[in-house]
Every structure is written in structure tokens, then in C-alpha cells.
Amino acid sequence: MRLIRFVLALIVLGLGALWSLQGLGLVKGSFMTGQTQWLYIGLITMLAGIVGLRWASRSRI
């Protein structure tokens, strides 16, 4: 179960990073490219991923 939590948190963190980069306009090819709202959504998602990683690493099972 701990591994599943860890992998899910990494996926959330990766999606947040991708969305942030698209919001900054560094990753092209999407409707999200260059729109700053996706930068903020990505940053919040990355924060959720970091919290998830901490939670996964602290769980006993």
C-alpha cells in the first residue's frame, strides 16, 4: 500500500510540474500553453504531490 501511495504522489507531482511548465509556455502543444492560470494550478498540484510524498513516507504500512 505504501508503494501505491508513493507512486500516486509522484504522478501528481509530475502532472503539477508539467502543468506549471505549460503555464509558463516552456512546453508547447496544448491549450494550456502560455496561460498563467495553469502555472498556479500546477504549483498547487505540485504542493499536493509533495504532501502526498511526505504522507507516503511516514505511513507504517
TrEMBL record:
Membrane-crossing residue ranges in chain numbering: 39-56
UniProt keyword list: Membrane, Transmembrane, Transmembrane helix
Domain of life of the native organism: Bacteria
Protein name per its UniProtKB record: Uncharacterized protein
Species of provenance: Mesorhizobium vachelliae
